[in-house]
Design brief:
By secondary structure, the chain is α/β, with parallel strands linked by helices. The protein has helices at about 40-55, 75-85, 120-130, 135-140, 165-180, 195, 215-220, 220-245, 250-260, 325-335; strands at about 15-25, 60-65, 90-95, 105-110, 185-190, 200-210, 280-290, 305-310, 315-320, 345-350, 350.
Length: about 350
Amino acid sequence: MVVFVFIPEAHAKEKTFTIVIDPGHGGKDPGAIGYSAKEKTINLAVALLLGDMIETEQQDTRVVYTRKTDRFIELDERANIANRNKADLFISIHANSVKRGSSVSGTETFTLGLARTQENLEVAMRENSAILLEDNYLQKYEGFDPTSTESYIIFEFMQNKHMEQSIDFASSIQKEFVKQKRANRGVKQGGLLVLRKTSMPAVLVELGFISNREEERFMASVSGQKKLAKALYSAFTRFKSEYDRKRGVLSVNESQSTKNNFTDVSSEKPVITPQKAAKVVYKIQILASDKKIADNSKEFKGYKNIDFYKEKGLYKYTYGESTDFNEIRLLRRKMAKDFKDAFIIEFVDGVKVNR
């Protein structure tokens, strides 16, 4: 029997995590149109299935939808819904399209960033074109023209503090799609307005190509929609589990394993044995950036003695250091008012442990 520590049993069902699910398009905006199906219908069906799975299996998670019916929601309002609800995760669900008759197929997941290829730029342009249906879109989006390549330069200078978590979640989604026998087109970046103002880890998923007859039939079928929703749900559970672990929600078994300097054997990572007398140090990661941040930057909110390490091409900034997990857990709680998304990381003999 596994008994969780740090969270009293009486509060186990409190809504401690919020996910916002955004079915793309809707109402007067049909999205891409296939041979017989519309993107907006597929997006909504998969979104509702995903939300139902989460609400059924994850009792401590609150599910918020940007829409639950066939209605038009402006792009900036979708992000506003997530921000108002203080969401911990945002996922926008879409279907892809190219010239009808093309054999292009597969799933891909986008995070916010500058599109590095023409193909990625075209996806962003197509998704952003929904603003053309909004009133006063030029004023609302500060002159942004979704059809002009020049408008997309603004995304080159955007710093997203949730970039690392967004990419990790996107990678999990793609791995789960592969398990459902879907072709993997990878994790990509794009200048997507729906992600621009979200203040949490956020991704946009392209479930497949509605312009491909075979994929359209799959996405429009109940069985296909269930498989796609299951893949998204599995990726979500992995994200949520990691979210809990980094905030100090450990089971007794996991906590004991950490004290004994063992990694989780189910992770297929090397076991660190006690004979090595390994030194375990815990730190709090507060930020990640693709560029080095100056020591006196406002990003650090006045905190001193900030350290960093490099991983996957990113500068990852940390605060605090202790060999006592409970001590670092309490420090993270104190810092939560300044760094809501800070989390605990572990080093063994100076090397970061990835669980």
